[in-house]
User: Which sequence fits this backbone?
């Protein structure tokens, strides 16, 4: 049976284009659409949809106001936010994730690009990942149990780094991880979240507001400090390089996207092979695809690592954690609400 999608956008032309894209895939149908949040609210009170494509800028009731009202009334929706790439809309999109949106897409600047193949591919890819992933990629429980018995972590006093990767569902998941980390975590953290330019800065700023630990968008040549989370900027790859004095710095590069990803977690993990860290705690959270797996596999041959993966039940999309589990590299499989505690257990507090 086809998944039923509700399209909410104030532009009649955009609504038509989005519906046409959705209806072109045999997995989905978009029969209904709404011109603003107020109209959508009345519809969602009466009818359930498998997913909602939600514009953020609309008259009468915008996307954020709709999500707030749905949350207040206990009406659950699987919302994918569509937002233009501006600083203001980036902040709104991050807030939408807090309110329950599972992912977002950047809206093209004109209707020709909206009708184009790239946006169509992204929209259908997100819908397939969010609505079908748990039906076909969840790992068997027996597999998860086997991964939990891998070797113990390095002892206290070691020089460690945390390297985290996530994608679809990541912005919301990170709000259940980063704010729970202690201010004096005894390691720096480098973090790749698949997001475009502008959105990562808003994500970093919001996480910094919510957290005791310092959070910022990473800057080129910045020296890594313990008790600090560095988020790779959208549109740049993040690498870690060693300094002559034993410290490490961030190197941002503008090389081409890898499989459409920029930043790419595999590049981050590959760069750590030459680092001077005694142990690297690798964390893989919700996300489609397998970014991070090949990098962690290569890293495991050169460095001592400890791998923490989010479990299937709490992932929006169980793709990236599944891929790393299937590679036989996971030490601990934990639900989202235990990720921060597990990181802290492995690196300690200063």
Assistant:
């Amino acid at each position: 049976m086809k998944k039923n999608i509700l399209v909410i956008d104030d532009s009649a032309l955009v609504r038509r284009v989005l519906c046409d894209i959705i209806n072109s895939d045999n997995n989905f149908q978009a029969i209904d659409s709404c011109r603003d949040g107020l109209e959508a609210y009345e519809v969602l009170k009466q009818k359930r949809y498998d997913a909602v494509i939600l514009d953020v800028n609309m008259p009468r009731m915008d996307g954020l106001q709709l999500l707030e009202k749905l949350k207040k009334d206990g009406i659950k929706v699987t919302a994918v936010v569509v937002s233009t790439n501006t600083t203001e809309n980036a902040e709104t999109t991050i807030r939408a994730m807090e309110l329950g949106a599972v992912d977002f897409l950047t809206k093209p600047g004109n209707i020709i690009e909206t009708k184009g193949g790239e946006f169509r591919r992204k929209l259908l890819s997100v819908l397939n990942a969010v609505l079908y992933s748990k039906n076909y990629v969840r790992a068997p429980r027996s597999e998860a149990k086997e991964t939990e018995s891998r070797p113990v972590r390095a002892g206290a006093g070691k020089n460690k780094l945390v390297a985290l990767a996530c994608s679809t569902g990541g912005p919301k998941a990170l709000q259940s991880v980063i704010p729970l980390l202690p201010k004096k975590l005894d390691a720096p953290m480098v973090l790749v979240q698949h997001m475009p330019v502008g959105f990562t800065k808003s994500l970093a700023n919001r996480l910094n507001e919510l957290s005791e630990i310092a959070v910022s968008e990473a800057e080129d040549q910045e020296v890594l400090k313990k008790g600090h989370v560095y988020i790779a900027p959208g549109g740049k790859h993040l690498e870690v390089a060693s300094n002559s004095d034993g410290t490490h710095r961030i190197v941002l590069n503008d090389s081409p996207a890898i499989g459409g990803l920029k930043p790419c977690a595999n590049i981050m993990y590959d760069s750590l092979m030459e680092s001077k860290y005694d142990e690297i705690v690798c964390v893989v959270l919700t996300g489609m695809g397998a970014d991070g797996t090949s990098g962690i596999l290569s890293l495991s041959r050169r460095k001592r690592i400890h791998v923490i993966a989010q479990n299937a039940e709490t992932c929006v999309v169980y793709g990236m954690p599944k891929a790393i589990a299937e590679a036989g590299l996971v030490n601990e499989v934990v639900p989202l609400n235990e990720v921060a505690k597990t990181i802290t257990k492995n690196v300690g507090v200063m």
About this structure: Confidence is low (pLDDT under 50) at residues 135-155. The longest helix spans residues 117-136. The chain is about 35% helix and 20% strand.
